[in-house]
Amino acid sequence: MTLDAEGFARAALENMARTHALSTDELVLHAVCYYLGDRRSGRSSYPMPASPLLPRTEPADRVGVDFDLDARTRREFDSECRRQGVEFEQLVGHAVLYLIADLDSGRAAARHLNDCMDAR
Fold it and tell me: What's the pTM?
């Protein structure tokens, strides 16, 4: 699977991955896992916003991030996409920003990233 990251999302993804000594694809995997783990949190920021928060940018400013999900995680994430009525790539992008915001605010600690992946 490929996530097209652009503009602010691209910079945030690259910077946070570098900060935590991860590749961008590893950070995307952590984001999906973290997001699914927070399903029952009731947080207002959990659902995908009804309208895009960021404007589209020129293709030259986009970067593709290839990542693979295990079958169980893919099924769970597909189910969440259907529940929210959004496309897979849109929700992956939201999950990435959700994790980045939580890491930046201190809500999520870097150690939670490994705990989340170990639980899979």
Answer: 0.77
Cα–Cα distance measured from residue 21 to residue 14, given in angstroms and rounded to the nearest whole number: 10
**Phi/psi of residue 64, each to 5°?**
-90, 135
- The structural domain count of the chain equals 1
Query: What DSSP string describes 36-86?
Result: HHTGGG--TTSSPPSS-SS----GGGEEEEE----HHHHHHHHHHHHHHT-
Q: Mean pLDDT of residues grouped by 10 in the chain (120 residues)?
A: 64 86 87 90 86 54 66 92 90 89 81 58
Residue 90's identity, in one-letter code, is Q
- Residue 82's Cα: distance from chain center in Å? 17
> How far, CA to CA in Å, does 29 sit from each of 1, 13, 34, 57, 97?
11, 12, 9, 24, 13
Domain that holds residue 46: 2-118
Nearest partner of 17 among 33, 3, 4, 31, judged by Cα: 31
